[in-house]
Write a structure and sequence with these properties.
The complex is a heterodimer of chains A (370) and B (282).
Chain A: H1 2-25, H2 47-57, E1 59-63, H3 72-83, E2 86-90, H4 96-105, E3 115-118, H5 120-125, E4 130-131, E5 153-165, E6 187-189, H6 197-209, H7 218-229, E7 233-237, H8 240-244, E8 250-254, H9 255-264, E9 268-271, E10 277-287, H10 293-303, H11 306-314, E11 318-319, H12 322-328, H13 333-339, E12 346-347, H14 351-368
Helix pairs in contact in A: 2-10, 6-7, 7-14
Chain B: H1 2-8, H2 11-31, H3 43-47, H4 51-83, H5 90-102, H6 107-118, H7 123-132, H8 150-170, H9 174-182, H10 187-215, H11 219-224, H12 232-241, H13 249-278
The chains are: A alpha/beta (370), B mainly alpha (282).
């Protein structure tokens, strides 16, 4: 592990040195820049040169970005419109782990993903796949939300929320409310917590809301066991379709997903339980073998610009530069008012807590809801 | 030279099997013997014997066994009923072709057909609830759990039995029945002393085929069951795609090896029984 890190550090240093020296010798010719090793826009000779280089590539391959997830549909469309670059969106519904598999399988082909949007566990497990890059407004991203060299950077978070069909069930005001008979056969998760990050976070929320800590997910698992015993938990994978069909009347999911459902399904409302709020950032990273390296870097610049960050808010997610935007007055006040500021104590699983939680779930989950 | 020529015609098929079956299987299974960093390990194989994995093998086994037995018995009865129809008649032809189609009607389509019909908000579910006042999900949400696999699996097992067992039944020669009658046998002695022993290898062979068919089914279960990964193919999916429990990709290879061992035993039994059956079908 140590040597690996050293090597990575060395590689980053060399990459930086090469790009810097390339910059020094031919400052006026951005086309000479090896986009694959550029760690900031300056390496291209400024943001305009980066745009030119990206437009010369003409395409950007993104993966696992559903249109209705954190408003990615609008974000992709704006990028296409603004830079006249075609966004190829592959496999929108796959998991973070499958993004890395796709990068492996498609390595060297021009259909390989250029950029990733990954959950934290997979991110930390896949550092060898990333190329470091620091966006122009690097300073606006809080220290704890980025890898120092820019290998990966947090982009947005949701809070774990409860969506419910207000036409058929009452509003839940506490976790224990959900155990009541009014919610019989109603409560669902977005995926299996031993496989999907959103469902895992729901167990995390149930844990902290039951008075536990993220060091031990047992209270969360026990809550769902009680929910299952009460006949209130249904083993159906909640999607926009199951919500629209009325199959899943109460759904634990990220606030941005539940808000997306609220926008299309009549009567769908979203609550965030009072007390501790569970959040988890997703991470942006550039594929080290990106077939369109300049476009991949421009995508990063774009995503962290206030324009795209505000689109995340519109989609119900909290972007990572929110504080800096609030200070600069660039936040879309109307959009943030619609989803509400993150109040109360927020918690996120550390790597170790996530690993322990995953081990526990792998052992206990199937039995708890069986 | 002639010996070589005799096998030359097999080459395209052999190559096909090699490239699309043998090599991928070998590659997949060998991953089970390596750790993530590429070093050799027994951990994935010993991981097969943890209680969680053993219980998924047990669930896979009982689902396959139950649906194979029900499928075989119901399918055999359908075949017996068809014996009474004219071999070239319309009914026989229709049932034959229906069986061929339905035996392949598995996977996601079948799962959604069941969800739309008897799912939580399914057509039949709501009809029964509103008209008859019976909630078929009052006890548990069985369609989305392991017991829910039984109905869809039987749905494709019965037609498969009809396809595989019908030729054996047709192979029963009328002379045998006549001989039995001439020697003073009853209908009962004909079925117990002649037909049953002749049909037994074929019946059990088909039963094993049905078992293997259910054991290796993935798509139907994947579309129905979203919580828990209680059968082996779903465990393989979990090991490959999970974004919360990481580093189990190679466990998938070990699970596949476990399934192959079960399948080899079953198919070996099938071929033994087949060779016995073919004696009577000459």
């Amino acid at each position: 592990m140590f040597t690996k890190r050293h090597l990575a550090g060395l590689a980053v240093f060399t990459a930086a040195a090469i790009s810097l020296s390339a910059c020094a010798s031919t400052p006026a010719a951005p086309t000479d820049v090896d986009a694959k090793t550029a760690t900031n826009a300056e390496a291209f000779g400024g943001i305009d040169a980066l745009v030119a280089a990206a437009q010369a590539e003409g395409q950007l391959n993104v993966i696992a970005l559903p249109d209705n997830w954190a408003n990615y549909g609008e974000i992709k469309a704006l990028f296409e419109e603004k830079y006249d670059i075609v966004v190829n969106s592959a496999d929108p519904d796959i998991s973070s782990a499958e993004e890395i598999t796709a990068a492996d399988n498609l390595k060297g082909q021009d259909t390989a993903p250029d950029v990733f949007d990954l959950g934290t566990a997979v991110t930390l497990d896949s550092l060898d796949y990333f190329a470091p890059y620091q966006v122009t407004n690097w300073e606006e991203i809080p220290e704890g939300n980025k890898e120092a060299t820019g290998l990966y950077v947090n982009d947005y978070t949701g809070s774990m929320s409860i969506g419910y069909d207000s036409n058929s069930v009452p509003e839940p005001t506490s976790l224990d409310d959900l155990l009541k008979p009014e919610y019989k056969g109603a409560v669902a998760l977005n995926g299996d917590p031993t496989q999907a990050g959103a469902a895992f976070a729901a167990i995390g929320l149930a844990t902290v809301q039951s008075g536990g800590t993220l060091d031990d997910f047992t209270p969360g698992v026990e809550f769902f066991e009680k929910l299952n015993d009460a006949g209130n938990f249904i083993p159906v994978n909640a999607t926009g379709a199951t919500i629209a069909a009325g199959e899943t009347k109460v759904v634990f999911d990220w606030s941005y997903n539940n808000l997306a459902a609220a926008a299309t399904v009549d009567g769908w409302k979203v609550v965030t339980l009072p007390g501790t709020v569970y959040t988890s950032y997703y991470n942006q990273a550039i594929n080290i073998d990106a077939p369109h390296p300049a476009a991949a870097r421009l995508w990063q610049e774009f995503l962290y610009s206030p324009e795209a960050q505000n689109l995340f808010i519109k989609g119900g997610a909290y972007p990572v530069t929110l504080e800096a935007m609030n200070a600069a007055g660039t936040t879309d006040e109307e959009a943030i008012a619609a989803i509400g500021n993150l109040d109360g104590e927020t918690v996120t699983s550390t790597d170790e807590q996530a690993a322990n939680g995953a081990t526990l779930l792998a052992e206990k989950w199937a039995a708890a809801i069986g | 030279m002639r010996g070589v020529a005799r096998y030359a015609g097999l080459t395209p098929f052999a190559l096909y099997v090699l490239i699309f079956l043998a090599i991928p299987t070998t590659l997949a299974v060998t991953t089970g013997f390596f750790a993530e960093d590429g070093s050799f390990t027994w951990n994935n194989i010993t991981g097969l014997f943890t209680p969680t994995i053993l219980s998924t093998f047990a669930s896979s086994f009982w689902v396959s066994a139950v649906t194979a037995i029900i499928g075989a018995i119901v399918g055999a009865l359908v075949c017996y009923a068809l014996l009474g129809t004219r071999p070239d008649g319309a009914l026989r032809t229709i049932v034959d072709s229906l069986a061929s189609v339905l035996a392949q009607f598995g996977g996601v389509m079948l799962a959604f057909a069941f969800i739309a019909t008897i799912g939580l908000q399914g057509l039949a579910t709501l009809f029964i609830k509103n008209q008859l006042g019976i909630d078929i999900y009052s006890e548990s949400f069985w369609l989305y759990q392991v017991p829910g696999l039984l109905l869809p699996y039987i749905y494709f097992q019965v037609p498969l039995m009809v396809i595989t067992f019908m030729p054996a039944l047709q192979g029963l020669k009328s002379q045998w029945a006549e001989a039995n009658a001439t020697l003073g046998g009853t209908k009962f002695t004909y079925w117990t002393r002649i037909a049953a022993p002749v049909l037994a290898p074929s019946f059990f062979g088909s039963l094993l085929l049905l078992f293997a068919n259910a054991f290796s089914s993935y798509a139907t279960a994947a579309a129905l069951i979203s919580q828990g990964a209680q059968i082996v193919p779903l465990q393989i999916r979990a090991a490959l795609v999970s974004e919360t429990v990481l580093g189990r990709e190679n466990m998938a290879g070990a699970l596949a090896l476990g399934m192959i061992v079960v399948m080899v035993i079953v198919m070996w039994g099938y071929s033994v029984l087949q060779s016995r059956t073919s004696r009577w079908q000459r």
